């Protein structure tokens, strides 16, 4: 395969149909055992190609879906024992749309259980390894998708982002990760974690590749009541606009404490590149941003405790054997089906929603959420984009943070505020620290994905970080 970029792959498939998918199937077969990036690998296309494949936007493009998107007749586990044997009878909106545009599904990627985690270590199917250093985590929860794209096992993959789960693993694996505006992409058939925060997005090699996929994936879906009915711009055409004159607010909050100094330097270097390309930089502070982690860890568990109530061992999912009576069936099925992190979230969520604590925790967190969104909107009146580091550190070691949930939660400190505000954001590779990738975080106003992608594209035109391949995963290696 000469080029791994989406445009070239579509062109190659037009000339030699099936060859592109074959190439990636071979890479998955050769490398997945090192990474554990896939929970399910498909040898055959689960559905026929669209009849007018020639006119599809992404004809022949191999894709992998995070195992949180339901796929008809293909097992969908959400990284949990609870859904270990679940074969859905229908496709998620995203899956359907991308298949209609000619994407070829090669597999389902590994993830933290029910998307709760920042390291992929909560998956029932074992941790994913970071292709840059197999002893380190790929980030989470879309770690399987990020590792697979980084190692060249798939050109693009879907992910979901509730508090950073696309951008954080993208940063730690050195790929481009895009979380669209809440409501831009359908949540129909995307297994719910925290419905007011969950949003589907893309992990790709470049902003250009992400633009190709977003154009096919975005749009209104009447089956998701929070999906927004507004036209989908041509994100690919908009890439050409560049960033001359674009005002970028640098989120100074992120440089205060906890940031690895070398990561900080790479981000400052990246911002200087933006400046050279014609952007105008200024400093911005969001007064309530520091409250985003505490607010999120009240709201997300509250919503998850409600969403996960459906896994009762009766309708679908894991069912315990030998239950004494109905309450015992619920108790045993849920105790056996869920892992420790999911149980912790359900307990926190049930607590903050309970009578007597609801006002003190849940309502208070909702008020803080509003203040955070207002901070962002206020800042975006004076600048076009906000920028900062995606994560405080490069990838950490497997097992390093599993004993201490609070340290783990702090890994999303820069990404979570964006979900609370519902805004679009992306992470682009911005250099290496100790041989490990670092991500630059860009945030835009509501539905301004086009500007954010254009800025990232301009940056990638001037840098080569997004083209780096982890040692041992070169196209010639196997
Ligand atoms: N790491 C965060 C959490 O554990 C965010 C997860 C996500 O975005 N799905 O909740």
Describe this structure in words.
The chain is α/β, with parallel strands linked by helices and 478 residues long. It has a domain at 3-242 and 423-467: Amidase signature (AS) domain (Amidase signature (AS) enzymes), CATH 3.90.1300.10. The chain contains 15 helices and eleven strands. It has helices at 6-15, 19-35, 93-100, 143-150, 167-173, 207-217, 235-238, 261-276, 292-307, 326-337, 340-353, 358-382, 405-409, 416-421, 449-462, and strands at residues 38-41, 62-66, 104-109, 156-160, 176-179, 200-204, 247-251, 280-284, 385-389, 425-433, 436-444. It has an eleven-stranded mixed sheet, sandwiched between helices. Strand 10 and strand 11 form a beta hairpin. Helix 9 packs across helix 11. The longest helix is centred in the C-terminal third of the chain and has 25 residues, at 358-382. The model has no long low-confidence stretch (mean pLDDT 95). Residues 115-118, 141, 161-165, 193, 300, 412 line the site of glutamine.
Topology (SSEs and partners):
Blueprint: H1 6-15, H2 19-35, E1 38-41, E2 62-66, H3 93-100, E3 104-109, H4 143-150, E4 156-160, H5 167-173, E5 176-179, E6 200-204, H6 207-217, H7 235-238, E7 247-251, H8 261-276, E8 280-284, H9 292-307, H10 326-337, H11 340-353, H12 358-382, E9 385-389, H13 405-409, H14 416-421, E10 425-433, E11 436-444, H15 449-462
Parallel strand pairs: 2-3, 2-4, 7-8, 7-9
Antiparallel strand pairs: 1-3, 4-6, 5-6, 5-10, 9-11, 10-11
Bound molecules: glutamine.
